[in-house]
Amino acid sequence: MMRPFGMRDKLGYLFGDFGNDFFFMLASSFLMVYYTDIFGISAAVVGGLFAVARLWDAVADVVWGRFIDSRKSGKHGKFRPWIFRMSFPLVFSGVLMFVYIPGMSDGFYLAYAFVTYILWGTLYSTVNIPYGSMASVITGNSVERTALSSYRGLGAALAGIIVNAVTPLIVFKNNEADAGGFLTAAIIFGILAIACYMACVGLTTERIVAKENNSEQVSLRATVKGLGKNKPLIAILLASLLFMVSILLIGTVNIYLFKDYFSNTAALSVIGVIQTVAMIVAMPFVKPLVSRFGKKETVSAGILLSTVSYGILYLLPNVTTTGFIVIAAFGMFGFAFFNLVVWAFVTDVIDYHELITGLREDGTVYSIYSFARKVGQAIAGAIGGTAITLVGYDPDLKIQTEAALDGIYNLATLVPAIIFLVVFLILVFLYPLTKQRVSKLSADLAEKREMEK
């Protein structure tokens, strides 16, 4: 007898993203300043590195997703064994990124950055793809999947509150980046990540075992044809890509905003904690709002709040550090709903794919979604590094020019406001799975599976 879905699964799934986000958030928020201030690489070159690495990772996601779908479920499930196997090399590669060897040439630092960062990103796919795909086989219930999505978001939030609160205190000394501090942070987060991955594997249970696809069904041609018909997938891909661009751009630019514009790196810890607290505060509202209004409707309202908040910040003249953080908190509360519900969107999209194609390809569909997120990360990395350079940021200057400071502020406010507005419009007008259509989707799929028995 398989134990029923419950809190143990929710906590196990929480630990998965808890482990993922120790290094993901460390890299997305602090790796650029590590490369510019420790390795001495220009922000524009770092942006290029991020773009190349994310595009490579996007391809790796799809390849790994197809590979996972070609594997049969074993004694411990289809996805959990891969999380266990690949988590150790993933964490080791994450620590390698922050190893600094003094006295080497500029070419060595650039090559080292490329190799270690791309290696880490590739190994990240081998853990994240089975982890993300696993949600659709832990339970088939839409409400329970929304709970898994929320707990995954909470896991990311818990990692975020630790990384954003602790990291600035470790990696900056006298308001300047410290190589030893970065390595210390990486080792600490690596140990915590391994513990979380083991908890994820040990606490979750895979309950749904789909019938094996025959060779014709799993052909790439059949899969691509089905994906092209999946309108909800296409819409959520566009929305997620742009959302990732905005979130990662905010994370990248905030480092320079508080370090140079506000001259207060300690405030980075504050805004990092507030972002996580905003998600925790939003979490209790997810289930009642989604139950009453639906996923699409709830998330759209949250994104609209973010649009308005960052638009106000752009329009406010001479805002103080405290004022900026307070208004930004409303924007963080708004986009927290996207982070908490998006994984439930993905499971709906996977079900829709099965309904219209007859193919149960959790790994492939999830990897396509992950592909879009990675492209968003690539764009954000390229835009962030290039834009920081274009506005005139000079790592050799202790005090930046007025034009550079104004440019950094605009990047942190106006650009996110515009991107959030576009995401809102996509969700409202292009994503078709309203509350009513999701209910019908679940009923139709259950009927189809019953007929196939």
Number of helices: 14
Task: Indicate the overall shape.
Answer: globular
CATH topology tier name: Growth Hormone, Chain: A
Q: Which strand order does the major sheet show?
A: 1-2
The CATH class assignment is Mainly Alpha
Total strand segments: 2
Order of helices and strands: HHHHHEEHHHHHHHHH
Low-confidence stretches: none
Share of residues in helices: over 70%
Strand content: under 5%
Please compute the radius of gyration using only Cα atoms: 21 Å
The structure class reads mainly alpha
CATH architecture: Up-down Bundle
Kindly report the average pLDDT value: 88
How many domains is the backbone divided into?
A: 1
Q: CATH superfamily, please? A: MFS general substrate transporter like domains
Main sheet specs:
2 strands, antiparallel
Gap between N and C termini: 20 Å
GO molecular function, one term: symporter activity
Membrane topology: Multi-pass membrane protein
Transmembrane segments: 12-35, 41-63, 83-103, 109-131, 151-170, 182-203, 233-258, 264-286, 298-316, 322-346, 375-393, 413-433
Pfam families: MFS_2
